[in-house]
Write a structure and sequence with these properties.
The structure holds two protein chains of two kinds.
Chain A (H helix, E strand, L loop, with lengths): L15 E2 L4 H4 L7 E5 L11 E6 L2 E9 L9 E3 L3 E5 L22 H10 L5
Parallel strand pairs in A: 1-6
Antiparallel strand pairs in A: 2-3, 3-4, 4-6
Chain B lengths: L27 H7 L16 H17 L10 E7 L7 E12 L6 E8 L2 E8 L5 E8 L2 E2 L34 E2 L30 H7 L18 H16 L1
Parallel strand pairs in B: 6-7
Antiparallel strand pairs in B: 1-2, 1-5, 2-3, 3-4
Classes of the chains: A alpha+beta, B alpha+beta.
Protein name (chain B): Large ribosomal subunit protein bL19m
Main location (chain B): mitochondrion
Family (chain B): Belongs to the bacterial ribosomal protein bL19 family.
Chain lengths: 122, 252
């Protein structure tokens, strides 16, 4: 039996890649897992970068939503969503269909390209 | 001068003036008053705190309600909330969803709205008295069989999907609020909580589990709980007092 989906994102949590990149959408016998969180605490919330292990490769990713309830008036998603990113912050996919929280707009400088490819906002 | 002198009886003599029958006024306000709705966050929790604290909080809640209309709604009704968001375009953000839970007492009262957008379930917990909320509309006012619809997370997504541009369902100001006796079908187990257990007392799920599992779940039933006198909290008198206070203050 498997453990239930983790609420916030830390090492070894399975995540769901939400953009339309080839790396995120091709099926593989192992789900993408987080191996490192770029944070003082090892717990990743919305807007944090993490290192993902997908299809035997290491890739950085941006957390866009998690199962853990955050501050009131912010959305809580039913799955831990993640967008694949390069080292310089450019997203790999070209479109993000799932809804993205408006909180990410606060750091418009770093995430401007990710926000540009997002379609829905919540 | 009066025209009554011209009226002639069948006898031929002038008839006495008969006033017209009085119109029957159906006072709709009185009918509405008989159905009272006191929002659950006004009722103070059981405890040993000074009632002065709850009185001051109620004054603040009434003050906010005078400025901003918080409509009557129950768990299971579909609401649309517009909030002020500095990071949204046009600074405001609209979210439509079904209310799955109402928690908190006093000014910190919250309600959680759930919707499924693009196959992704989203829940937002709003505070009723938060000044960032600009409007709350009730699109569909109805009750469900349970007080807490958290099981919708483990139900098939069709039961939590609501169109973002849904039109408000019109209903007459008649007495009863419709109770939706919908029995929801669930995704296969494992669920986030064991909803078949009697502790949750859920009536709104169509359990398709084998009889053996349902019987096993009854092992955790605590039939003595409903007779426990120390857990009783009779709110009828408190509600009457608070209802009088709140309705008088709001009518001023």
């Amino acid at each position: 039996s498997i453990t239930g989906a983790c609420r916030a994102i830390q090492k070894l949590t399975r995540v769901r890649v939400v953009d339309n990149s080839a790396l995120g959408n091709t099926p593989y016998h192992r789900p993408p897992k987080c191996i490192h969180v770029y944070n003082k605490t090892g717990v990743g919330k919305v807007g944090d970068t993490i290192l993902l292990a997908i299809k035997g490769e290491k890739k950085k990713a941006l957390i866009v939503g998690h199962k853990m309830p955050g501050p009131t008036m912010t959305p809580r998603f039913d799955s831990n969503n993640v967008v694949l990113i390069e080292d310089n912050g450019n997203p790999i996919g070209t479109r993000i269909k799932t809804p993205i929280p408006y909180i990410l707009r606060r750091r418009e400088g770093e995430f401007s390209k990710v926000l540009a490819i997002a379609c829905n906002f919540v | 001068f009066s025209s009554s002198g011209y009226r002639i009886n069948s006898d031929g003599k002038p008839a006495k003036f008969q006033p017209p029958p009085k119109p029957v006024i159906i006072d709709k306000q009185k009918q509405r008053e008989e159905r009272r709705f006191l929002s659950p966050e006004f009722i103070p929790p059981r405890g040993r705190t000074d009632p002065l604290k709850f009185y001051i909080e109620r004054k603040d809640m009434i003050q906010r309600r005078k400025v901003f209309n918080i409509p009557e709604f129950y768990v299971g009704s579909v609401l649309a909330v517009t909030t002020a968001d500095p990071y949204a375009n046009e600074k405001s953000n609209r979210f439509v969803g079904i209310c799955i839970q109402r928690g908190g007492k006093g000014l910190g009262a919250t309600f959680v709205l759930r919707n499924v957008i693009e196959d992704q379930g989203v829940e937002i917990c709003y505070e009723l008295y938060n000044p960032r909320i600009q409007a709350i509309e009730v699109l569909k006012l109805e009750k469900r069989l349970d007080d807490n619809l958290m099981y919708l997370r483990d139900a098939l997504p069709e039961y939590s999907t609501f169109d973002m541009n849904m039109k408000p369902v019109s209903r007459l100001d008649s007495e009863e609020i419709p109770v939706n006796k919908l029995q929801v079908r669930m995704k296969p187990k494992p669920w986030s909580k064991r909803w078949e257990r009697p502790k949750y007392n859920i009536k709104g799920i169509k359990f398709e589990l084998p009889e053996k599992k349902m019987k096993e779940a009854q092992k955790w039933s605590q039939p003595w709980l409903e007779f426990d006198m120390l857990r009783e909290y009779d709110t009828s008198k408190i509600e009457e007092k608070i209802w009088k206070e709140v309705s008088e203050a709001l009518q001023k």
